[in-house]
Amino acid sequence: LLQNHVNILVDKPNDQSSRWSSESNYPPQLPEVEGCPANGFSRYLNSPVGFVKQLCHLDCLSPSASGLKNDYNKETFTLKHKIDEQMFPCRFVKIVPLMSWGPSFNFSIWYIELHGIEDPDVVQPCLNWYSKYREQEAIRLCLKHFRQHNYTEAFESLQKKTRIALEHPMLTHLHDRLVLQGDFDACEELIDKAVRDGLFNQYISQQEYKPRWSQIIPKCNKGDGDDNRPGMRGGHQMVIDVQTGETHTAHCYDSRPPSGPSARSCHKMCIDSQRRQIYTLGRYLDSSVRNSKSLKSDFYRYDIDANTWTLLSEDTSADGGPKLVFDHQMCMDSEKHMIYTFGGRILTCNGSVDDSRTSEPQFSGLYAYHCQLGTWSLLREDSCNAGPEDVQSRIGHCMLFHTRNRCLYVFGGQRSKTYLNDFFSYDVDGDHVEIISDGTKKDSGMVPMTGFTQRATIDPELNEIHVLSGLSKDKDKREENVRNSFWIYDIARNNWSCVYKNDQAVKENPSKALQEEEPCPRFAHQLVYDEMHKVHYLFGGNPGKSCSPKMRLDDFWSLKLCRPSKEYLLRHCRYLIRKYRSVPLKATSSHQRLFCVLQFQLLPSALFKSSSDFIPLGKNLFSVHKRSAHMANIRFIVFIKV
Length: 642
Known about the structure:
The protein contains 10 helices and 38 strands. 20% of the residues lie in helices and 29% in strands. The strands form 12 sheets. It has a 4-stranded antiparallel β-sheet, with no helix packed on it. It is α+β, with helices and mostly antiparallel strands. It has 5 domains: 2-116, Sandwich (Jelly Rolls), CATH 2.60.120; 121-205, no CATH class; 210-219 and 230-234 and 457-481 and 499-562, no CATH class; 237-450, Neuraminidase, CATH 2.120.10.80; 589-642, no CATH class. A hairpin with a 4-residue loop joins β21 and β22 (338-342).
């Protein structure tokens, strides 16, 4: 048991004795405590070695692992409190310490807050719903048991009395035709109708993606002196116009266009596909050329149709916007005609940005730019606190805008020498920050790794975020056997899945075959997504070769994420139905009886009713000459006997 458990009821961060300590350093330790859908933790100002590093909280349904940081800032966790978007009442919350920051020390908890709703007018309807939900699930389990064991009378009686459906009516109809009546033709008709009605769509959306890389080699204009495609580059920017399918690449130490921005890298661009306009902000400057004039943050807009540049601001900082930054992120809200920019390292005149001894690094906050009014507004300042509405600025992160739920999603990044793995969203209309993951969960292999260059895209229709992880910018963290990996985050289900990794480690001199199949790991590249055709495009970057540090790439790739199609599932279901249709016939038929022989010879015509049901096993496996149906049946019988 833990000692002095009443201490967690009072928040005294300056009192070292105001804590709840365990008698041992191994779980389980904590008894059940009364709680609600959210809880918060506080601690002693000086980080103690016995403070909880990892913990597990159970809200009467399932455990949820989490952890606490080793500092004095308060932290808040959102507990699971909904089933099918319906809140359920929770009487107890059990907190199980798993590990302390000092491995040989006992557990200590300073203070716990539990936030929830106690209003009887709100809790009682939820309690009634939960009781009804629990009863329905118990009855459905009984119905499933009765039907599996062929207790037909008990099944029908319980279903008639309770009027609770075990499953979708189509599944009940399929069970009746397949299991009870053995009508295989009717089963195939049911499957055909289910495919037409879209009943397989949800199943398809839950299947794993299969990546398909294809290298795009643009045609060169023969006879021209220069190639019209972009050259080798890194640190550039690329956007895609989803209306026309055109990609736009700009500014990587290229020549300056008329009335346009100067050559630059580590800047950001975003596109307004409705108005066909591109905005660009920020750049990196070497410390040798920094002065008060060069550190002004210019802001440009490019009109695609008119092919003209417009200078919107000579210095956004003077207009209430961000200072000159690099490695930040920009997103466009075409509906409200707003631009959001977050993070990035602020350039100063105090020497090199890599020299931390001259000055502490400065990071930019979250800004919004109203395109019609031409005004900036600061939404969130850079904050090191861990409050529920605070955001920690960074560089090299991913930020995406969801056009349907109107939220910004921010993931990963780097702050000074610390690689961040937190994940949060910002509601642009409600001005609210939601912590999706604080990065303390030890789900190694289940989330994209930190410290590697990540490029992200979003599909609002599928409600998915895609992340391509490549090389690290840090030479010390760059490994010769690093691999590309592609991750997908399901926003609705709140889970990550890795759908792609290199089949082979990338060496200094990768094989030509591997180069032709998939792109090599890299950083300083760009990845865009055509959400209409569901295709990613990757271009350029730095392969990070130690033997050629200045090497840049100009390869252009497309990535198609494929799932099983409706046609494939329909064909597979037909195969299963016809497979089980043939099992009884093969087991009971006697080839000594003429009737059984005739039935057996008709089996191929039942299995292959149309040419679309037959898939060739090889290009030259069968002759292309036509044969009679009788010969086809004989050939099939021989195959079965073998």
